[in-house]
User: Fold Glycosyltransferase RgtA/B/C/D-like domain-containing protein from Helicobacter canis.
Amino acid sequence: MLHNLLTRFLQTIDSITQKRVYIASFMLLVLLATSALFYQHANHFSDVDYHIPATILAQSHGYDLEGYGLSFVKSDELGALSFSHYQSAIGVQGFFYAWLYQSLGLENLKPLYKLTAFCNALALLICAFLLGRIFGRAFGIIFFLSLFTSSWVANFSGSLYFSFGFWILPAILAFSIYIYIFGAQYRHNHRSMPML
Assistant:
């Protein structure tokens, strides 16, 4: 009896997953839940995460960064001597978020933190989807669940400095290229792509 219930349950799930509307709705729900989790459980790592707000502040006041990020504001007044260089690159994400802050005309950093949590959740979902296309649906689901339930990923995914989406962006590009190159060859013969 239990076997029959489990079989019927799995058949129902399989028939639901065949309909793209249900899949898209479910993926949207997962995306929103993941971005909310990333935003709420974010550890903003005050020792390093302030590099990006300091860079945003310096750029808004026309301070020449000389290609570096900034580590902190040295005084309460804003002037040329108020800023201190962080003699290391803040990464692509630092300059991207500084540009985005200015382009959107934001007043504070809260929308930027929400946007980064959403983009990081989207990157995780896309990466899991691509892995599911390459190795099979079960692998993609297990990959997503293992990272979704990781407190480490949740802590880093809401941070501007440790932007999780930028970490896995090269993997997303590589998986997409792999699917593009090998997908046409195996599309009609196999349900999943050949193993790497």
